[in-house]
Design brief:
The chain is an alpha/beta fold. It is built from 10 helices and 12 strands.
Length: 265
């Protein structure tokens, strides 16, 4: 039996029975990320301030949200501690490549990113939408009608949703900021007409603020939501995919999603 097959069988057994096991030792330079994770019992996750995917709770010092709960569920089943390393969308890929962390959740797979890093199977689909505080005119229903300098929009710099939206709105007046809270400040201050982001972020804003109008313009622009990792980590990628399929099948991941975004996914 090959080493790859052996690791896959171990991963399946761990998910089903939560039986503890020990990875074979390997040098730091030669080891697949999964071997190091199992040896140290720690997985390092790049965490981005982008609720509902991630949020750093200042009161407790813990990271909460959809991705932390998914990570804790998957790695808790094999007795591995999750350690969070702050990053942002624009530098997350470089953080993986430089070995600052092992994984980044809710990171959209794109052809350009796939040249530098690897991705898991999708855990969701992210549609791109617009949120405004004013009653949206009919023009908000189509990207082409908004593609002009008079339309002022804010978005998070480096996010794949931003890059995708810029392709359909190249002529709009863009304000790019570092994080979601800064994007929201642009909207609430009236400096922009709307914000552009993935539909979970926009939906959560509506739910928490009780305000705002969300529109998913036509044609619908969407991208897969994945978990990213370094190249040359096939065993880690395969184990993550086994875990995704297992917890999607038993309803665990849907329950986590519903906790933060009831009725959506």
């Amino acid at each position: 039996m090959s080493k790859f097959q052996w690791m896959k069988l171990l991963a399946n057994a761990a998910l089903i029975s939560s039986v503890a096991f020990v990875a074979p030792s390997a040098s730091a330079q030669e080891a697949d990320s999964m071997e190091r994770i199992l040896s140290t019992k720690v997985v390092r996750v790049g965490a981005i301030e982008a609720f509902p995917y991630y949020k750093h709770d200042l009161a407790t010092g813990k990271w909460v949200g959809i991705i932390p709960e998914m990570m804790e569920q998957m790695f808790g089943a094999i007795d591995v501690k999750v350690e969070y390393i702050p990053t942002d969308w624009g530098t997350a890929s470089a953080g993986l490549q430089s070995n600052r962390f092992d994984l980044v959740g809710a990171y959209n797979a794109t052809p350009s990113r796939a040249l530098a890093i690897d991705f898991s199977d999708p855990i969701a689909e992210s549609r791109i939408g617009i949120l405004t505080l004013k009653e949206p005119p009919a023009s908000y229903g189509e990207w082409s009608a908004l593609n002009n300098p008079e339309f002022k929009v804010a978005a998070v710099d480096g996010a794949s949703t931003t890059r995708a939206a810029q392709k359909v709105l190249p002529n709009a007046s863009w304000t790019l900021v570092k994080a979601s809270n800064a994007m929201i400040m642009e909207l609430e201050s009236g400096r922009v007409d709307a914000i552009v982001s993935n539909h979970p972020t926009l939906l959560l804003y509506k739910q928490s603020k009780g305000a705002g109008h969300m529109v998913i313009p036509e044609p619908v622009v969407a991208s897969p939501v994945n978990i990213a990792m370094r190249k040359k980590s096939p065993e880690l990628r395969e184990w993550i995919n086994v875990a995704i399929r297992y917890y999607e099948a038993d309803g665990t991941f849907q329950a986590i999603w519903n906790k933060y975004l009831p009725g959506d996914k």
